[in-house]
Amino acid sequence: MALWVFGSTVYHTLILGVPQAEIMGAIGALALAANLASVFLLLPYKDGDANVRSVWLCSRNDAIGNLIVMAAAFGVWSTTSAWPDLAVAAIMAGIFLSSALQILRQAWGEYRTDETGTKAAAA
Questions:
Q1: Which of 23, 34, 62, 69 is the most buried (most CB within 10 A)?
Q2: How many Å apart are CA 44 and CA 2, to the nearest integer?
Q3: b/e sequence 67-92, b meaning 16+ C-beta within 10 Å
Q4: Alpha-carbon span 40 to 86, nearest angstrom
Q5: Looking at residue 119, what is its pLDDT?
Q6: Each residue's pLDDT tens digit, 47-106
Q7: Which residue in 77, 69, 63, 58 sits closest to 20, CA to CA?
Q8: Residue 67: its pLDDT value, please?
Q9: Which residues have CB under 8 Å from 86's CB, separation 6+?
Q10: SS3 assignment, position 47
Q11: Cα 101 from Cα 120, distance rounded (Å)
């Protein structure tokens, strides 16, 4: 996901040109409302097993992404440059990679626990 977000943004920036800031901001605001609703609904489950935690992290990351997309929209609008959009794509890619690593570590620990029947050592 991280590579797709970054690669897609690089392609759009270098090939298609400056994104439309107004559309970026409007879609970001609508998506933020939907993602915040999901985040608050899933908040009690954020420390659950790897599957549940993954859903919560994805919703949280999407809400964070919506906020920084709205900031990028302002940056694109104020500078008439695509660079703010590209910078946000790099940040979002980092957020996605970080969450993916957290879930992989947790899932691996749960897998090891199930396989051995004992609690795996924390990595």
A1: 69
A2: 26
A3: bbbbbbbebbbeeeebebbbebbebb
A4: 29
A5: 55
A6: 877 778 788 888 888 898 899 989 999 998 999 887 887 888 888 888 888 888 888 888
A7: 77
A8: 93
A9: 9, 10, 13
A10: coil
A11: 17
Q: Which amino acid is at 2?
A: A
Distance of alpha carbon 80 from alpha carbon 94, whole angstroms:
25
The dihedrals phi and psi of 82, each to the nearest 5 degrees, come to -85, -5
pLDDT value at residue 11: 78
Give ∠ CA 23-91-109 in degrees, rounded to 5: 125
Count the neighbouring beta carbons within 10 Å of the beta carbon of residue 106.
Answer: 19
Give me the sign of the Cα torsion angle 48, 54, 55, 57: positive
Tallying the residues shown for the chain, one arrives at 123
Cβ of 59: how many Cβ atoms within 10 Å? 21
pLDDT computed for residue 29 by the predictor: 93
Residue whose pair of structure tokens reads 């998506």 in the numeric block: 31
